Every structure is written in structure tokens, then in C-alpha cells.
């Protein structure tokens, strides 16, 4: 029997389409199976700052118990530099399989992208928000040798020596840098900026007396404050905190635009499948119910948040817009 070319092509097309459909169904099943088995190997959480800072402290507080919840080890890795953007860029490029997550901060998802349009990721589209772990106050603190014991004395000392003092931050473009620069604009004070590769190295030099002034998150600074190796002068928080009742908020000082807390949450790369997002969110939320974990985080001065992925996404978007507006209004640029 002769088969016409037209008939052959029609039958071939039919079989090809059927094979493609079958292959697609097979791949879909494999993908669904991989998601249902998640995680089947250790999960990495990338901290985009050097060890010793608040981001690192919070990540390590949840890592081991989160691993127990997920049934696989959760390993914290530090990759500092660029005010958090180097590590955040790596996290944004990771495969969307849930095996490389990262800690998102105001520095990586709001202040740095707002002041530096050349960052290698879009904070609103290149990540999948999962959960905001905690929020922390930010502080201005000085070395004990600094000639000021109160905020008012600090202002007078800096006014007396324009550009005569330097302050340390966790990196150029980070929240510490941007908030301090905003503070300078609001107060007309003039200080030199010395950026570091994270809060840990910045703290080390201020505590050692190499740099007199620090803008930092409270959790990483608190041990040095309680041991009187740092003197806190002002704090960004909704109200004075019980651990430091003598320290006024920026709002009290008439500097409400600088009175913003920092967030520390878990994100994955864009396109992270919903079942994996839900599993990580549920496991982290469960960890944050543990009294031991809560105490470890809250003892640093942080407040547990544990919101939904949708709420965290909205928070990131709102915070990013705040800093876009601040940069534009204050005409801030990278140093």
C-alpha cells in the first residue's frame, strides 16, 4: 500500500505531538516529585555580609532548628561585600529549587538598590519572598572615649569639628550608610564615612577605637553596649526599648524619617515553586514558635515578625519605595 507524503506528514505530526505531550507530562511529574521530596539534600542559607553582624546572628539562630524541621541540614554561608549586593546577586542567580536561600535585609532589597541602580538584580522581581523572621532597631553609638555621653553632647561635638569625625558602617549603600547619610542631611552634621564588609568588621574597629562613631543594628552591637565598650546615643525604634531605657528614639529627637527598623527575612530566587515556598515558610514559622529560638533572637533586641510570603513581599516593595524617595529627595549618591 502506498502512503502519500501528505498522509505520512500528518501521521508523523500526530505522533510527534503525542510524544511531546507525553514528554511534557513526564517532566511535570518529575518536577512535582522533586518538589514533594524537598529537601533531599542540605539547604544553604547565604548571608550577604561578613560573620558577626545581625544578619549572621539571626540566620544562625534559626539554622539548626530549621534543619530539624526540614529533615536536612541547613548550612549558613557568609559572602560579604558591596553592602550586601555581592551575596544577594549570587542568591538571585541560583536555581529555583530551594537549595540556596538567602537572608534579605533592607540593605540588599531597599537601600542599596535605591542608591545604586547598577546592582545586578531587581529587588522586586528577582527574589521570591518567603518569610520575614525579625525586625531590629538601628542605633548610633560611639566609642567610650568619644567626648559625648548624650545625643545632645554628640551633636555639639560633631558641630565643633565639621568632618573631623568618621563613622563606620556595614558597607557603602547599606542601610547603615543610607540612614546615617539621611541623618546627616536632617541635622546638617558633617562626618566622614568608612565602609566595611559587614557589621562585624565595622564593630571591631569601633570597639578598638580605630573609628569613633558607628551606625549599626542593635543585635550585633548589644553585647558591646552591655559590656560598656560602646555607648548608644539614639535608636530607630517605635518606642524606647526596655534594655536601653535611657536612649531616645529618632522620632523623639525630631528625626522621624530616620526612625525605621531593619528587617531580616528569607527569600529564594525568582520562580521558586509554591510548594517549596510553603514548606520553608511553615517550617520557619514553627521554628519561631520555639521559646529557646525566640529568646535567642529577642535577647539581641530584635522583634519576631513571622509574616506571610505576601506580607513580606509587600513590605519589601514599600521599604524600597521609601529609600527611592529618600535618595531622590536628599540627592544621595554612592561615595
UniProtKB/TrEMBL annotation:
Signal peptide: 1-34
SUPFAM superfamilies referenced in this protein's UniProt entry, alphabetically: Periplasmic binding protein-like II
Keyword match Translocase: no
Swiss-Prot/TrEMBL keywords: Signal
Keyword Protein biosynthesis attached: no
Similarity comment: Belongs to the UPF0065 (bug) family.
Identification of the protein by name: ABC transporter substrate-binding protein
Amino acid at each position: 500500500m502506498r502512503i502519500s507524503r501528505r498522509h505520512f506528514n500528518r501521521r508523523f505530526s500526530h505522533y510527534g505531538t503525542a510524544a511531546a505531550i507525553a514528554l511534557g507530562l513526564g517532566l511535570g511529574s518529575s518536577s512535582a516529585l522533586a518538589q514533594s521530596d524537598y529537601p533531599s539534600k542540605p539547604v544553604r542559607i547565604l548571608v550577604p555580609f561578613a560573620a558577626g553582624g545581625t544578619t549572621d546572628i539571626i540566620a544562625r539562630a534559626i539554622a539548626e532548628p530549621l534543619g530539624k524541621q526540614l529533615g536536612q541540614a541547613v548550612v549558613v554561608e557568609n559572602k560579604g561585600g558591596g553592602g550586601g549586593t555581592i551575596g544577594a546577586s549570587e542568591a538571585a542567580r541560583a536555581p529555583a529549587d530551594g537549595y540556596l536561600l538567602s537572608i534579605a535585609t533592607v540593605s540588599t532589597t531597599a537601600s542599596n538598590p535605591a542608591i545604586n541602580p547598577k546592582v545586578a538584580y531587581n529587588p522586586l522581581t528577582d527574589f521570591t519572598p518567603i518569610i520575614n523572621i525579625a525586625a531590629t532597631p538601628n542605633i548610633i553609638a560611639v566609642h567610650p572615649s568619644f567626648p559625648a555621653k548624650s545625643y545632645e553632647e554628640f551633636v555639639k561635638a560633631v558641630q565643633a569639628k565639621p568632618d573631623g569625625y568618621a563613622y563606620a558602617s556595614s558597607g557603602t549603600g547599606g542601610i547603615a550608610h543610607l540612614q546615617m547619610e539621611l541623618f546627616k542631611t536632617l541635622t546638617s552634621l558633617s562626618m566622614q564615612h568608612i565602609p566595611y564588609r559587614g557589621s562585624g568588621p565595622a564593630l571591631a574597629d569601633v570597639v578598638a577605637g580605630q573609628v569613633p562613631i558607628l551606625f549599626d543594628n542593635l543585635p550585633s552591637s548589644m553585647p558591646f553596649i552591655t559590656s560598656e565598650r560602646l555607648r548608644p546615643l539614639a535608636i530607630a525604634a517605635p518606642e524606647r526599648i526596655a534594655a536601653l531605657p535611657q536612649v531616645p528614639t529618632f522620632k523623639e529627637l525630631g528625626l522621624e524619617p530616620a526612625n525605621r527598623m531593619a528587617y531580616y527575612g528569607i527569600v529564594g530566587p525568582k520562580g521558586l515553586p509554591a510548594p517549596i515556598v510553603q514548606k520553608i515558610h511553615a517550617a520557619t514559622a514553627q521554628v519561631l514558635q520555639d521559646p529557646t529560638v525566640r529568646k535567642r533572637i529577642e535577647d539581641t533586641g530584635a522583634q519576631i515578625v513571622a509574616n506571610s510570603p505576601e506580607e513580606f513581599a509587600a513590605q519589601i516593595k514599600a521599604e524600597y519605595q521609601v529609600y527611592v524617595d529618600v535618595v531622590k529627595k536628599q540627592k544621595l549618591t554612592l561615595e
